[in-house]
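During the no-cost extension, the postdoctoral fellow (Dr. R.K.) reprocessed legacy sequence entries with the updated structure-token encoder. One reprocessed record is reproduced below for audit purposes.
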Amino acid sequence: MGFRVEGMEAITEKLWAVFEAIQPTATDPMLDFDERDLVRLAEDTGFFPIRLTLDARIEATPPRRWDGFLDTAWNPNVPTPREAMEQSLSPDERECLAAQLRPLVEGGGGEWRMAFAHLSGVRR
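Re-encoded structure tokens follow.
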């Protein structure tokens, strides 16, 4: 989720397993493509000329409320962090993770990575 939580690997592995089971990063259609695939698909379906503008960003996360963070699903196919934590972690593990993660979330101490691709073309 863009926050460094050193020493919490066993806990974060359990948490990520929830997301990976629902949306495997290597095979899920929302995640298993990049800008080259978009261009190839447009070309293969008869578009020419094709133009792709890629806007890739790595930025600091803005500070946000802890409850807002916990109750936000990052996309419509996955649970919120709160739901995933309740599903995969014991109460003690949730408390331990929150103790380290909450100050980072509320202080904007994370990294946000996102890429936006705008593809346009003319169908031949």
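Residues 9-123 form one domain. DSSP finds five helices and two strands in the chain. The remaining legacy entries will be reprocessed before the final report is submitted.
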